[in-house]
């Protein structure tokens, strides 16, 4: 009788050991799958961040071009105003 109990006990221990090995295998596989997914997600985010950096760089370049154009327009308006003042002064002189 005690031998049967010991056999049953060892049998149950073997079953539990097999189940624990299966659980460990499943957990390991899930960790690997999750790591792959995280690496893929990281790659997508890195790509999106780089694209956003490029867009910001383009916007900064456009902003600088607009500032330069604004300076040119202000300079041109100053030249026009000066010429108009000279023309007005010349009209007064030649009247």
Short description:
Helices cover 97% and strands 0% of the residues. It has 95 residues and is mainly alpha-helical.
Would you mind describing this structure in some detail?
It contains 1 helix and no strands. The termini are far apart. It has one helix at 2-93.
Blueprint of the fold:
Layout: H1 2-93
By DSSP, the count of extended strands is 0
Largest sheet: number of strands, sense, barrel closure:
none
- Please work out how many helical segments DSSP would assign: 1
% residues in beta strands: under 5%
Estimated structural class = mainly alpha
Please tag this protein with its features.
1 helix; mainly alpha; 95 residues
